[in-house]
Amino acid sequence: MSTESPQDGLPRCPWAGDDTLYRHYHDREWGRPVTSDTRLFEKICLEGFQSGLSWITILRKRERFRAVFHGFDIPKVAAMAEADIEVLLQDAGIIRHRGKIVATINNAGRALELQQEFGSLAAYFWSFETMPEHRPTDLSWESLRQLAHTDASLSLSKDLRKRGFKFVGPTTCYAFMQAMGLVNDHMDGCFCRDEVEAERASLARPR
C-alpha cells in the first residue's frame, strides 16, 4: 500500500518518507531501468558500502564517492593502488571501511573481465532479469519488507562471488536489481509504478 506525501499529495512507496533527497531518488531513479555500465558498476559498489547501513546514508555521500572513485570509471578504479586506499581511509566524506574500499577496486577488475566476456556489464546483469515464483505479487509494503532476496538475486550473488566479486551477497544483489529496474517493486498505487512499467516495456534489453 502506497502512502500520500504531505508535500505534494502524490502516492509513494512508504520508504520514500519526507526527506527531499530520498523522495527525489524514489521518484526519478529507483526502479527505472539502467543499461549504463558506469551506473551499474557504481550501484553495485555503493550497495556494498551500504551493507549494515541505511541507503540514505550512502545517498548523502554519493557525490563524494563519485569524486574519489573517478566517477566510477571502471578502468580508473581498477588501477587504484594501496596509496589511494590509504588516502580514502582518511576521507570523512565516504564510508571509511578498508574492506569495502578494497572490494570496490577489486570489483572494478572483475567488471573489466565481465565486459570482455559479455560485451558489457549491462548484458551480464540483465541476463538475470527474471520473475521468481516466490516473489510477492501484491507488492505491499509488508510483503516487500519481509523479502530479503529472490531466486534471481541468489543466482546473481553466487555467480558474482564465483567470479571474484566481494560484498555481493543475495540481499545486496536484490537491492541492486530493484534499484536498477531489473524488477519493478514500486508499491501498488505508487505513482511511479506505471511509469517504471512503461519504461521497462519499451526497454531494448542489452545482449
UniProtKB/TrEMBL annotation:
Domain of life according to the entry: Bacteria
Annotated keywords: Metal-binding, Zinc
Alphabetical list of PANTHER family matching this protein: DNA-3-METHYLADENINE GLYCOSYLASE 1, DNA-3-METHYLADENINE GLYCOSYLASE I
InterPro entries hit by this protein: Adenine_glyco, DNA-3mA_glycosylase, DNA_glycosylase, Tag
Amino acids binding Zn(2+): C13, H26, H186, C190
Pfam families: Adenine_glyco
GO annotation terms (biological process): base-excision repair
Protein name: 3-methyladenine DNA glycosylase
GO molecular function: DNA-3-methyladenine glycosylase activity; metal ion binding
